[in-house]
Every structure is written in structure tokens, then in C-alpha cells.
Amino acid sequence: MSVNTTPVSAGRALDALRAGYAAQAAGQLVTSWMLHGRPGIGKTEIVQQLAQETGSRLFDLRLTTIEAQDLRGLPFYDHQTGRTVWYPPEDLPQEDTPAILFLDELTAAAPTLQPTVYGLLQERRIGQNRLPDATFIVAAGNMVDDGAVAYEMGTALSDRLVHLNLRAEASDWLKSYAVPQGLHPAITAFIRTRPELLDTGEEALRRGQMIACTPRSWARASAILRATDDRALRDVLLAGTLGDAAAAEFILVADDIAASVQAQAMLEETEAARLALYPRSLHGLTALVYALVTLADRDTIDAAIDVMAEIRTLASARSDPEFQRLPLAELTTYGFELLIEKALADGLQEAFRTSRSYADYMADRDRG
Length: 368
Hints:
Number of strands: 10
Structural class: alpha/beta
Number of domains: 2
Number of helices: 20
Oligomer: single chain
Order of helices and strands: EHEHEHEEEHEEEHEHHHHHHHHHHHHHHH
Strand order of the largest sheet: 1-10-2-9-6-3
Largest sheet: 6 strands, parallel
């Protein structure tokens, strides 16, 4: 059974959940949400980010590891009333404070568990145990054709949910996840120039291959790059994370970037000295842009603006034909969009108002 709704990026799905959370807090919309998407696309990360942004306690229930009685709780006999009473489980919110109940792997849960989940999703209760009003409910899961363990979702379950069908979108992933999380510049540079390799799950499934590139595997590759100094071991780990073909292509780019990108040194050098440090390849310059955004803070923002602005002038400032063939203006504009966004988030926007380099860049851009 297909998910017949408009596919959205992870960033747009997060926007939808933000709106839903605000609407529930205002008493305008109380419903449950379902995130569909291939393994590794970032469903869990979306919910974790929403919890962090809203200050909500996250109750993460992996439905493949529990049974119906785990949700119902423990029964005991009340001698005064002559009735069986249920102790609620600690895995469900009890206090009326901001909380997100995340029902992960919903489509992989045993069919015998699904009727118990119905009450949570629709009536927000199990037996007599009702969820507090401040609890926001999100479920997630894979589909049968994703190659993951999954059951078809019946109409009795699907009708209780607002469905969001996630797709991997490189530009959204770079802006909404990779840059804010500070992934390794080699990762962000590579995906910007090879966006089709962000998610190769469908192709790997068609070819019968076990390992595929996913947003989650690229985040793991970033950690590998930072944790492993032994190049031979690094290459083995990357191949085991991304698959041999994608890893081989990425390793070439990563080695080029490692040899040519000196972002920290450029922030500390004088204007004359740093001119020779700019990488000559598109991958290298793209990695430099992402590295500048990652390194920019209250102490380095001024230098980061200067270095970013100079990228636009490299074709004339350096007598190297390689720079003549590169989209320097486009790269500078993209870099400043990311840097301004970070500056606004960190309260560093005053640096742009007082920067001579940025003023010259804007004047040059206005002239066309």
C-alpha cells in the first residue's frame, strides 16, 4: 500500500511538526503524526530536534521491543474497591509538562500490538490511563517496499494519523542538518556536488546490495573522518558505511580536501598571506565554505567574512586559469547565505554591518 501524499524533505517535515506542536499547545489541533521514510533518512533526528527546540521530554518507544502488556502496565487487586487497577508504565508520560511520545518502528510492530496503539493515537489513552494534554504524539516507520522489516498499515491505523512522507533532498539536508550539526566539511562539500549520492537506498535494493548511502550513513562517515587517523583503516570503515563504489569516489575528494583546505590557518593569516592558501578545486573551495561556517564564532566571524568575500575575487587576484572555470560568485553567495544564517542564530549579525569586506562584496554584486 503506497503513501499517497506529497513527499516532503526532512526540513519541511520538521516545519510541519513545529506547526502541529504549536497548534496543539494553542488547543487548535490535537492529533497524531506519522513519519514515513526509508531507513536512515532522518526520522528519529527530526523528532529529537523538535524535542530539543520545544524543551519537551522525549519518550522514545521502539515498538518492536515491547508487547501489549508493556504499554498497559502492571495489574494489582484493590481490596477496597474490589477491582483490578493498573499501574501505568514509566515509558509513557504521566505529568502534564511538555513531552513528546515517539512511537518508533510503528509499521514493524507485531500486528497483535497495533490495537493497543490505536487507543494512544486516537483517544490518547490505554485503558483508563490517559496521556496528559501537553503530550505531543509522533510515530515513524518504514514501508514494506523499503526493504526493511515492516507490515502493511491497515486503514484502522492509518486513519488515526496525519502522514508525512519523507524524501532525501540534498540542499535541505545540507542546510537543515549537516551545517547546523557541523558535519565534516569533506562530507558537505561532496554532497553539494554529488547530491544524488545522499540516498542510494532504492538503487542498492534494486541491485541486491546490503550497504547504501543514507543521510544517517553520511553522518556516521563524518564521525569516522574525525575519529580515524590511519588512512587505510579509514578507507575500510568508509567502505563499510557507504558501500565500496561511493566510498572510493568520496575518498578521492576527501584526500584532495585534506591536502588543500586550511580554513583555520586562513582565519589567522593576513590578507596577503592567505591568498595563496585558497584551494584550486571546486570540492576544495566548497569544503572551505562549510569549514568557515563551522568555525565562525564571536572571535573569528570578522575573519570568516573576509575569507568568504575573497572567494569571489580569486579569478582576478590569482593568475591561475583553474579559477577562471569555477563558479566563484555563486559559491560566495551561497557561503554568505549560510554564514549569515549562523550569525543570526548566534547573535553575531553586527559583524556584517561593520565589515568592509562584506560591504565591498555587496557593492560588487549590485554592479552585476
